[in-house]
Each structure stands twice: as structure tokens, then as C-alpha cells.
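Throughout our pipeline, every protein is held as a single compact record rather than as scattered files. The record that follows is passed on verbatim for readers who wish to inspect the format.
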Amino acid sequence: MRNDRLFALLILAALATPAPAQDGGQVTGPQASEVAPSRFGGREPDQAYGAYQRGLYITALKLALPRAEAGDKAAQTLVAEIYARGLGVRRDGAEAARWYEAAAEQGVPEAQFQTALMLIDGEFLPRDRTRAYELMQAAADAGNPMAQFNFGQMMIDEAGNEADEREAQVYFERAARTGLPDAQYALALMLIEGEEPDFDAARTWLARAAQQNFDTAQVELGSWLVEGIGGTRDMEAGFGWIELAATGGNVAARNRLAKLYWAGMGVEGDPIAAAAWYMLAKREGLVDPVMEDHLAGLTEAELDEAGSRMAQLEQGGSRPAGLQEAGSAEAGSVEENDAQDQP
């Protein structure tokens, strides 16, 4: 059974934030884990890769380009990465697409993944859903976690029967076991579908995603704990997870937190705090009839106080009161390292 919360295809930031064009400057580039040789076809393009690791992106580009033009798949992927992220040069999506596609044709999983995204997006390559599906599957089968997650979503979108959805779940689980929070959340929701839902496993995967600050999972886990879904009811811990997501800016969490303060669930009832959190959610376009009635019942002085409290929340003046409880919740007590779960 399809769950609409899962299936808006994630278009990864293949074209990320522009970077200054100063060679050796302070550029926010990929993290150490992102520049592993495996991203570039299984081996380093020698000096070019070394320059890339040191943040000398223009130098890396100059060294890699001749080899890319000569057909070196690792150099092609490295050049594509530099253009896609705008590392040391102006971002150039068309040039990035050219080199990602060239490396994808030579079987580089990262290039296959990025090319598939571009084929879905249709901005820098002609839109081609069929070829995108094939490349995404190839990258997923090669072990790329983001490709596994996206391919699972593509399978769900095109699923014609339950067998297809079960196969999609396999890809979600592979990605989830690498620690990808998006996949952990998606897997949790899939585990509660069907005739034999597995709430215990679902709650564990939700907790893993929530511990990685995945706010949607924090809201879901918090709600399950408050309502006792899938295990022991723990309203204080549930309040803590929802508050954590609300403090991070999640609009739905802010409204749910307002209701918890209003009802005194998991926290001492506080009509002013309830109003303040709801005002924040309403500012983002969320309107809740229950909380509208709550605001209508407040005095002018109470509304003024709620407005002042809201301003403090906006300025980060409120530390999540339930954060400590959430972190120690039974549902959150899972191993941080999923390496032992690798198949």
C-alpha cells in the first residue's frame, strides 16, 4: 500500500552552492567521506585527486581535464564534481552533465546516480525517465546509498503490485543500513503497511533517523511515543522529540508542540507557550481550528505575552526542555553505528 509521505522523489543537490573562484581559498567543499576514491570510479586521478582533497580545485581541474578528455572515467567524475558544485569555478550544470554522463557510460556509480537525477530533472540533459531508471538501478546495485533510496522511490512510483513494493523495500533497507536517515524513515513507514506490520522494527528505524536530526522522523517518533504507537507510551520522551523538531524549524512539529502544551501532555500545561508555538506555525501558513479556538479564548494581555514568547523562540532563546528526555528515551537507545548491520 502506497504511503504518500514517502514518495516525492528526492533530487539531490547535484548542483550545490556556488563557491569562490579563488584557487586554494576557503571553500566549503565535500566532506572527507565524500571525496573517497570510490566516488571517482574506484581510484584517484593521482595529482588531480590530491589537489582536490587539499581544496585546490582550479589546480585539480587543470590536472584532471586532459585525462577526462582522454577517457579516464575517474577524471571525468572529478571534473563533473567540480563543475556541479562550483568548486573554485563558476557552477556549470551543462558541463557537469557532460562529464557525469561520460563517466556513467563507463560504469561509475556516482556518475550514474548524478546522471539519473539530471535525466529526471530535465534541465541539463533531455528528460528521459526510462534511462534514468536504468542508471539509478545500476548505481543502486553497485552500492550507492542515495541511489538505493531514490531507486526504491522510483520503484514505488511505478509499482504495479505488492511484489514490486516489497522489492522497493529491499532497496530502502540497504540504504537504511548504511545510515541514510531518509531511507531509515521511509523504511519505518513501509514496515507498518500491509497485513503484518512490524511496529517494533519501524520504531527502531525511526529512532535511528531521529537521532541523526532528521526532523520528519523526530516528529513521527515523538507522535508514536505520545500516542503509544508501536510500543511503550512515553509522553515526556515524545514531547522531547517533537520539541527538538519544532526548535529546528519544522512547522508541523511546532503545531503539534502547541497542542501538547495546550493539553498538558508530556509537559505541564502552558496556554501561553501553546499560543506562542502555534503562532510560529501559523506564520508559515499552517492553520489549525483547535488552536485558532485557543487563541480566540485568550485575553489581549495573554496574546501580547504569547507574541513576546514567540519572538524569543524565533531568536533561539528557548532550549528544548525535553531534549534530554528524548535523548534517553527507550526508543532512541539504538546503536549509532550501523556497520554491524551490513549484509
